[in-house]
Write a structure and sequence with these properties.
The chain is an alpha/beta fold. The protein has 2 domains: about 160 residues, Aspartate Aminotransferase, domain 1 (Alpha-Beta Complex), CATH 3.90.1150; about 260 residues, Type I PLP-dependent aspartate aminotransferase-like (Major domain) (Aspartate Aminotransferase, domain 2), CATH 3.40.640.10. It is built from 13 helices and 15 strands. It has a 7-stranded mixed sheet, with helices on both faces. A 4-stranded mixed sheet has the order 1-2-3-13. A 4-stranded antiparallel sheet has the order 11-12-15-14. α4 runs parallel beside α10. Bound molecules: pyridoxal-5'-phosphate.
Amino acid sequence: MKPIERCKALIARDREIISPATRISYFPLAVSRAEGSKVWDLDGNEYLDFLSGAAVTNIGHRHPRVVQAIREQLERFIHNTLAYTYYEVPALLAEKLAEITPGRFPKRVAYGLSGSDANDGAIKLVRSATRRLRILSFLGSYHGTTLGALTLSGISLNMRRSLSPLVPEIYHVPYPDCYHCYLGLQYPDCGLACVEYIRELFRILIPPEETAAFILEPIQGDAGVVIPPSEFWRELRALCDDHGILLVDEEVQTGFGRTGRWFAIEHWGIEPDVILTAKAIASGMPLSAIISRSELMETWSVPAHLFTAEANPLCCAAALATIEVLEEERLPERAERVGRTALKRLGEMMEDHDLIGDVRGRGLLIGVDLVRDRKTREPAREEALKVSWRAYEKGLILISFGRFGNVLRIAPPLTVSEKELEEGLGIVEESIDDVEKGKAPDEVLKQMTGW
Ligand SMILES: Cc1ncc(COP(=O)(O)O)c(C=O)c1O
């Protein structure tokens, strides 16, 4: 057993003073340092990182270019609110974001501090731009915890219990989750019944001409890495075009190279009207950006989406450096290549481990869906928690997530070396093997809330 006394002592203090609503607990990891794909705890134990701070450190922890950019900006000034003054880094970054995001039309950018506020911004923007109130979101989605973002989310009752009334006129429809289909059907025999479902709603319940937007993740992350079939995107874009509905592409988790493209929607060649980004944009500094067609942003007026600390110059400098690193090191392409190797290796594990029901992903956003029975696909939530615990004991940061909490989240930094990846996947396999052989005690579940 490795020493974890210091971690445990800090966690005991933390539990007394920090609100329980702010953390989903897995294992007693208290971080003291992080570099590249490695993290060290307070007791000096080293871990390989398959979580990347929740898909944030895409270019690795403390990339020297990011550290240098923050230092240089720190020497000039830390804060001058963009609400009343001008400075160059936010404009430079906005020009860059307009260039790298899909859609060959004039764009404008609005900043915030988190993925959640970007989603709230999207609700306001599409309503202002269309003068329509209704918004369609998707079951299984996670959009964050500000009031608008949690209204959009469709993954956990704990997020919304006792908070009603939430933001009105937001409806949820089934996401094309072809492994755990909401409608109990099988793709492709289903004939894309989830899109038919939307058409039916438009026929009998929700007037399409009163619908402002669809807001959705191109690949649902926290639902357990759920990847829609290509026709879904074509059909959805067509529905938008037919009824003047805006398509909001929520790339908070999938953006900045994570899935093997700069933005995941590019896998399907679709041009969204609005793109939401945060998380990896600034390698961990708090920043979000809404990038949209210019004419939409000309419809909302100040101060509809203004924050004192928006576009903090340290965060913008970190974002510019992050984008340069992604470009120069060609990390989206690398994610695609290395991700393919990981998917192959995980696919091979299925031959020896019945606990694995499905392996799916794009780039380095990969989910390993654990089931009790491959036929019924009964989710193996507790087993997934135990795998995550065993992996931690063996030096790998790996969590389980998903709408049933049974999917292992494989999301290392895009800079992870091939050796590190192989080592981490080896630990994943050993941990699954241990759980299958009953080597992980039920005891550990008491400390783990999990998804
Ligand atoms: C797809 C998606 N949207 C929004 C959010 C919320 O982002 P934040 O936690 O920065 O508010 C998350 C966070 O996990 C996310 O995965």
